[in-house]
Amino acid sequence: MSILQIHKLFVSSHEGWDAFARMQASSLKLFVFLVVPFSLIPPLMLEYAGHHIGAVMLPDTSAQAWRTAALFFLIAELITVPLMAWAIKSVANSKGVACDYHDAFMLAAVAPVPLWLSSLALFSGQIALIVAIALLGLAASVTLIFRGAESILKVEEGLEAFDIAYVVTALGLIAWALLVMLGLIPALA
To answer: TM spans, by residue (predicted)?
Structure first.
């Protein structure tokens, strides 16, 4: 699948997703070549924002505190993806959908990409823009979960895919809120 075809993951439940599934990438390969590189973006942006936005808004917070928060944030992200894969598998199985861990991991690996990319808004330093881009990233992730549930998990009923996406999104929001709080530790300390 080409990077130029990424938009198809958002608009179609099959065209882009079928190409993504045909890659036959193992969970380890997805983790190393998709999850790790993209999950590096938010911690790096957190460190950048700590030195720029944080230095203005929270001048008493040390650079070491921002570095520590970024490290913990990265570790938490890397742990969250396999846990979300397990949650997706569990939710799908509870709805009567036969789903293996690899399929769930594929969905868990690609769904947070818009959230990871939304952290690039921290370059702007504009709080309203940062929040707007983060919400847009969240909406894009929800769309990926819904489309992926239909294609990767092979859920043929739209309502069932929506139900799975709803539960997975709720769990993802909890994880996202915990990650955001982890990133704000220097500000709260």
So the answer is: 30-49, 69-92, 104-123, 129-149, 161-185
